Amino acid sequence: MDNNNKKYEKDKVYEIASKYNIIIADEFDKVYVNEKPDKKKNTGGNILLILFALPWILSGALFFFSGMSNICYFVRSKIICTELVQGEVSDIKQIVSEGRNRTIRYKPVFSYSFNNEEYTYEARSSSHKKEPELGKKVDIYVAPDSPDTVYIPEYKTERKNAVSSLILGGSIITVILLLYFKIRNS
Q: What was the pLDDT predicted at 1?
C-alpha cells in the first residue's frame, strides 16, 4: 500500500460513493481509496508539445524584446535630446517587398542643422502611409553630445511599431504558455 491510500470504514465508503453517484457492492468490510491517483507520464506528447510551443515562444520573445529595446531607445532619446532645432522631411524612401503582393512601405528621411553642421536622420521604422509629407517642417530634438541621436515627437510611427511589437510578442508568449499548461495539466 503506498502513501496516497487511506483506509476507510464501510459507512464512510457508502457516504463517499453516494456523494459521487458510485454504485458499490455490499460484500466488503474495508476499502482502500487512492486519493491521489498517479498520472501516467506522457513523455512523447510532452516532447511534441514543447517542439510545437518552442518556435512560437522564441518568435514571441523576439517580438517582445525588439519592442522593449525600441521603447527603451525612444525613452532614452527623449531624455537626452534636449536641443530643439527646425528640420524638414528631405526624402521619403520607398521599400517594396519581394513577394507576390508587393506591398510598399515608406520611410522618411529628416534633414536638420545643428551647430552649423548638416545632419540627416533616416527613420528606424517604416509605415504603409506616406507621412509626413515631403518638405514638411518638423521640430527635432537633438542630443547635444551626439547630434546624430534625435527625437522627433511628430513622427509617431516608430513608437507605434515598437508598442505593437511589444504587445504582439507578449500576446504570443501568453497564449502559448496558457495553452501549454492547459494541455499539460489535462
A: 46
